[in-house]
Design goal:
The chain is α/β, with parallel strands linked by helices and 380 residues long. It has ten helices and eleven strands.
Length: 380
């Protein structure tokens, strides 16, 4: 299965291709003539963006700025965002970790409106993922349904919670989406459920990047299924799953829309800027080991990741009483990303709701989220 976005070297080439055309248009008046060879070096020699909330501006390695005026301009800034994220999470792998899925199907359970299949599949050499595949009943021959990647929160039971086998009822969103007729894949994150994988022993620079790779392989599984329309795949998650859904969408443009529940806020608003919680071995240790938890040194922030999803749909559940991700920091992300969505004419695809609730995914908000996803699943 071919994965659409590969290593950062491919990003560099993409950046150069965009740059050859668009830099001459919008930088010429402000910057000296830029050669393609210099542009090819621009992503490896990233300009520093000290303000991670002012997104409609582009900088070169010398710190000179020009406004972003169109989608091609934004593509260059987006390449900078992705490369900056890779400096912290590690390089996105190329083909060296790609192996055949070797999908294996185990036990089958009748859940009324759908059948729950226990599956496993290869994600890279020496590692297999475990997941529940939820197949709605009544799919006609040759019919293709939308596919949903349902990512769980931090919980020992992993995939069982979104699949509705255990855990919190408010987080059984995989089960509920399958009951609505969608094909749903609920994988175990590599530290939970049936999986106990040490990403660092496997050569990864962060658990986060390992998770991105694993979740892209989960999208491969959905895309390979005869019941799934590969052009209508979306992602949903709460807490750990809330930010992992955005992380994977950053690298996989097959994901057409994302629902993130209680998943993020801007770093300065995360426990008043104390970002150690993002730096342990379950996330990105370089935040501490290389950047020393210094927000002035960290090369990316959440407003940029949110904007990088544009123009695809993003629905964010940000409760008023979330003690993990303060509402103020979520609003910073929204205010920063909205001009980028507006640049694409996609402002209606960026949706935020703020229920009077703690770190939770209340029933009425889930219904709004499902309706949002279904609006984004429509065939082109």
């Amino acid at each position: 299965m071919t994965i659409p976005l590969s290593s950062s070297s491919n990003l560099n080439r993409r950046c150069a291709r965009f740059s050859a055309a668009c830099f001459r248009c919008f930088v010429a008046a402000a910057l000296t003539t830029v050669t393609i060879s210099k542009l090819e070096a621009q992503v490896p020699n990233l300009p520093a963006y000290l303000d991670h909330t002012n997104l409609l501006v582009l900088r070169d390695a010398a710190g000179r700025e020009v406004p972003i005026q169109n989608e091609a301009d934004w593509a260059v800034r987006r390449a900078h965002i992705v490369a900056s994220f890779e400096k912290v999470a590690g390089k996105f792998p190329g083909g060296e970790r790609r192996v055949p899925l070797d999908l294996k199907i185990g036990a089958s359970t009748d859940e009324g409106a759908f059948t729950r299949l226990q599956i496993s599949y290869a994600v890279e050499p020496g590692d297999r993922a475990t997941a529940w595949l939820l197949l709605p009943k009544g799919i006609r021959p040759n019919e293709r349904r939308a596919g949903v990647l349902a990512l769980h929160q931090t919980t020992k039971i992993g995939k069982d919670e979104p699949a509705g086998i255990g855990g919190l009822t408010n987080l059984n969103y995989g089960k509920e989406l399958a009951q609505r007729g969608h094909v749903v894949l609920c994988p175990d994150y590599h530290r939970y459920g049936e999986r106990t994988v040490d990403p660092y022993k496997m050569g990864w620079d962060s658990a986060t990047m390992k998770g991105i790779w694993d979740h892209m392989r989960a999208v491969d599984v959905l895309a390979s299924r005869p019941e799934v329309d590969a052009k209508r795949i979306v992602a949903i998650g709460h807490s750990l799953g809330g930010h992992n859904s955005i992380f994977v969408a950053l690298f996989d443009d097959r994901i057409k829309a994302v629902v993130s529940s209680c998943g993020y806020n801007a770093f300065p608003n995360y426990y008043e800027g104390q970002i150690a919680g993002w730096s342990h071995d379950g996330y990105m240790p370089r935040l501490k080991n290389i950047y020393h938890l210094d927000l002035k040194a960290v090369p990316f922030d959440w407003p940029e990741l949110v904007a990088a999803i544009a123009p695809r749909g993003l629905f964010t559940n940000a409760p008023k009483r979330d003690d993990n991700f303060s509402l103020q920091g979520v609003k910073v992300c929204e205010q920063s990303a909205r001009p980028v969505y507006d640049l694409f004419g996609a402002g209606k695809k960026l949706v935020y709701v703020h229920p009077d609730a703690p770190h939770d995914f209340p029933p009425e908000v889930r219904q709004q989220a499902y309706q949002f996803l279904e609006s984004q699943m429509q065939k082109d």
